[in-house]
Amino acid sequence: MSRDGLRTAIVILLDDLAPEVAAARYELGRYGPNEVELHVTLLFPFVPRAQVGDDVVGTLRTFFSARSRPSFVLGRVATFAEGVVYAAPEPSAPLVELIEALATRFPETPPYEGAHDDVVPHATLAYPHGDEAAVRGRIEPLLPAACAPKHASLIEEHESFRWRELEPLPFAEAA
Fold it and tell me: Which CATH architecture has domain 8-156?
């Protein structure tokens, strides 16, 4: 957690855009009520909650309202080397460009604290302790799942591992 105890992130929430995939993710048992829903992370961690004021929200609104909404499908199930199983958005290039532009605008908050050289957009399905075969078997028949988000979201962790939307950030066509 951040020093003030509350973390924030910028994400694209997917429960309403890919409801069958989201429901299957919950059925697999890793995620429960009030945890962060199925999403593609744009920036995490973002600024500590105590620093999210009108200036930050205004900058985010301006940033997203100047950009076309991305359109993608959750096209396949993949696994990172450390065992995290995810649904891969395709095409990924528009999301990579969005993440990189957002990170340029907020250089103090690089994606994943700069831990990875390459940005790989993804919607996490299970962490390494999950059964990859079971995840694949449950999710792959539901793909591709088309997603055309109207907005990104600034979310906050209001309790440990409990997240909620703080602010919708509409893309140009949704403004």
Answer: Alpha-Beta Complex (3.90)
Q: How far is CA 134 from CA 9, 27, 129, in A?
A: 29, 11, 12
Residues 102-112 pLDDT 10s: 999 999 999 98
What three-state secondary structure class fits 121? Answer: coil
Chain length of the chain: 175
Whose CA is closest to 28, among 162, 134, 161?
A: 134
* Beta bridge mates, 170: 151
Sequence-distant (6+) residues with CB within 8 A of 89 are: 40, 72, 73, 74, 75, 95, 121, 122, 123, 147
Residue from 162, 80, 83 nearest 121 by CA = 80
| pLDDT single digits (tens) 67-121 | 999 999 999 999 998 889 999 999 999 999 999 999 999 999 999 888 888 999 9
Report the C-alpha gap between 70 and 144 in whole angstroms. 16
CA angle 84, 154, 45 (to 5 degrees): 50
